[in-house]
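Quick one: structure tokens for this chain, please?
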Amino acid sequence: MTSSAPKRKLAINRLRDRKPLDRPAVDRFLARNEAPIVEGARCTFLYRGDADEVLLAQRVVGLPEQIPMRKLRGTDLWYLVLELPEGSRVNYQLEVRRGEQVEQLNDSLNPKLSHSPVGTSSVCFGHGYETPEWTEPDPAARQGTLEEIAVPSRALRRDCPVTVYLPARFRRTSTYPLLVVHDGPDFLQYAAAKTVFDNLIDRFEVAETVVAFLHPKDRLTDYTNSTAHSRFLTQELVPRLETQLPLMGRPSGRCLMGSSLGGVASLSAAVKSPDTYGSLILMSGSFVFTDIGNDHGGGPVFDPVVKFVNRYRARPTRVADRVFVSCGVYEPLIAANRSMVPTFESAGMTMRFVETRDGHNWENWRDTLRDALSWVYPGPQKFVYE
């Protein structure tokens, strides 16, 4: 039996029907509603102020990067209604034009912000999305420690800073798996990596793990299929850590992780040393390739990445036992990441592929950490050390 009850009008439409539609009415509307207004799948973005044009600026693949907002007649309130699937999370800004002046800014009506090394943007939590509670500090969780070390590298011709995470119950009489994380400071600052490890290890969802957070110097060089960077990882960093710490010291206890170009660097190192690493975690990897022609659209910096990915796709090899791949469905990289799944499977590697309703950002990669870590290094009752 279906309900014949009419659908409730959107809040913005109820406001439009008000009489009089004056400034106090808009004031009351904004006081009652949190922006963006989420009503099921429909999200109403708002801007208040004098302008000649206001646009929603976002990077959801399949939508225009700039979508015009409409002005509510007789007011200074602008609005745009978008439909977003359940559980969506979308970063955005507002572009405001007044005459020749154009300004791109965060949504002053929305306190939610997404953070990254290049600044902040506003973020819309679609219906059903909530920040995972395991990404928030838990006073009851035992705290691991962070130690700063420097690893001399002949391969890279410099001393390389590394932040080492030791789990709360770390003992030199035990042995631990190792996770090497590209873009380590960004994972710590923008993806709450230490908090996530503390919580998931304390709850026995993830095995006690030693984590090496790498500090890149020039990621556009080191992370784009660099032989020197791969040599640093495999011949210098891992042996030193396994000498100084009680690590398992075999492929099943070694994992490389990276997002974006860090995913390329992780795969590249594994390809160059296929018997070293047991697992890879590749989040929104920049796996740019060309099936036809040479125009990959990424600019010269991606030329070495394209050559590497093209070559690997043409002749896939087994470089790990397990590969975790994730990507946001709103990212331009979603097609490339989907295409890598059968490539990895054809090489005989066990795959797990996770798609999220999110974009190319640190909160997306943060939210995926539990799926990735609990699959690669599950809690002590599940993790097989042999």
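The longest helix spans residues 227-244.
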